[in-house]
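Good day; I would like, with your permission, to put a structural problem before you. What I wish to show you is a protein chain and, alongside it, a tokenised description of its three-dimensional fold. I would ask you to consider whether the tokens describe a fold that such a sequence might reasonably adopt. You will find the record immediately after this paragraph:
***
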Amino acid sequence: MKKYFSRLLSINSIFSIDYTFNAKEGLSSLTNKEKKRSFATVCLLERDVYWRAERQYSNVTLFDLPKIIKAELRSIAPFSGHVFWRVKQLSTSQITVVYFALPTEYIDKIRTRCQFIYPLGEDFQEESQTEQQVNLHENITDTVTPVKSEIERISQKNIVNLVGFYLPKLKNETLSMQRLSFKKLATLCAFGVAAFTVISSAYLHFSLGYYKSEVAGNAVTVENALKTQRELRAKAQSKLDFDTFGQENPNVLAILSSLSFNEEKYFIQRIHLHPKGVKITGTAETSATNLLTLLLNHPAVSEAKFARALAKNRAGEEVFVIEVVFHE
């Protein structure tokens, strides 16, 4: 009877594991697998696409656990994306929860075919560290490759294991637009009239300015020359400030110069000193997570983290702000 209910509530009996996802090949269908009708589809994530962190909570009740997990989901990820979770160990004295962060770009590709994800390697590999940083743009040599036996083992697990691995759905914006009331519609029309008036006034203003600029062409040329002169002075002052900074803070530059970037390209725009370390602002052509990993591995660094979520500029580069704390 116990085996019967175990098979009845297994993942394979209700859902279907049809896809895998990795950074190199993207979403791939499992070959030689019989397709069947199911309530939802599960995608297996290989180790090179997700970030993993493990947290242990002591003296916590089951009633407090959902609140703790909800609070962790808001801030634990080091980059923009969605965080999934699973309870690894549950006892009266301690609860262990594992969190998995997945970038938004990967989620958008996976949810076109799947409703759930499941990280590979969690069922047989115990990691010694409680948190790992993963480069999401390079192949990892020890990537877990799904084999038939591993897929079979996951498919026999209880469906409770998928509670924290549900993919978020897109918000239906069309439905909300259809629910506009008459009052909101009238406000929208008034806003449209006001916007048309402002745009028309702006057009007339810029047209008049264009003709004035044609008349005062010489003045524009002089202004451009002065602007170029100011930019050259600013660059010279920036060089002078950098030299002064290097003389007053030799340890900071020594740490940065000792880092091996491995052909990665970073542009550091600002270094702000604070009592315990520095705050680094800049851009990365590939992945700012690599720079964070390099800083964390430096013997002089006690702690390093992103001060805010990663974003991309118009050039497609990642804009980052990293806070670094040195050993005292």
